[in-house]
Amino acid sequence: MRKTVVVLLLLTAVTTIASAQKQNNPDLSASQVVSLMKSQAWTDREKGFKVAVAMLRGGAQSRSDEDNLRMGLIQLVMVEEHEAATPSSSDDGERHEEYFAALVEAVANLHDARAIPSLLAVAGTGGMATRGVARFGKLALDAVIVDIRGQDLQRSGDSLWILRDMLAFRTASDPESQAKIKDVLRYCLGHPESRVRGNAISVLEYLDDREDFVPALRYLADRDPYKLVGERSNDSQDNGEIYPVRRGARILLSKITKHEKPVVPKIPMTN
Predict the structure, then answer these.
(1) Could you tell me if 160 and 196 are in contact, meaning their C-beta atoms sit under 8 angstroms apart?
(2) pLDDT tens-digit profile of 135-185?
(3) How far is 155 from 112, CA to CA, in rounded Å?
(4) What is the H or E stretch that residue 183 is in?
């Protein structure tokens, strides 16, 4: 009798919990989730993001629903990239930042070439975005080069890290891609923006025939004009003044002379 009562109580509890979960998290269709991700309120978009990821992981949708969810996530990156620059309270800002990072990671892990433009736009957020583009190699290379040669200096500098990942993980190692990469790096080494020149030097480290760039590196090591104003160095180089691009060029020249191989990050392109 006691066992029967206990079983009945357990069944009642399970039913009650399931009912409560059903009320708090009602089942949503794929179209409803996509609509949530298009909401004016970012908290609704965050909810839509979480549900979309869960639905895709569950794998129970039709091909059409799955495609709509994937595109919804890809488009959401651009929405939140703009939202990230919008002033908000400190608490909201921190929560949105965490949500945005999770969104970029999720879209990078879709392995969907349609995400290339969105991930390119947020390359400055770090390795998840840059590797998310770099994994497509030759397919993404032309778009990356357009960004590097563009007028947006921030994106020019950020997109160079994608080239570095392509070289480090050898996703664009065919002769045509290598020729394009070397051509754009020559352009960057002569760029008027110091950040672009400096980032290009970091990319050059991963080039197989980086020795071809020794003359350009020597020029930068001796003459690059960008100086940190008001800061001094303890060494004797440049009369104690700090020229970051010169230093970067000298470090790479030393590695080339010593035949030091670049360190490839032990991080997968995506999960």
Answers:
(1) yes
(2) 999 999 999 999 999 999 999 999 999 999 999 999 999 999 999 999 999
(3) 21
(4) helix 175-189
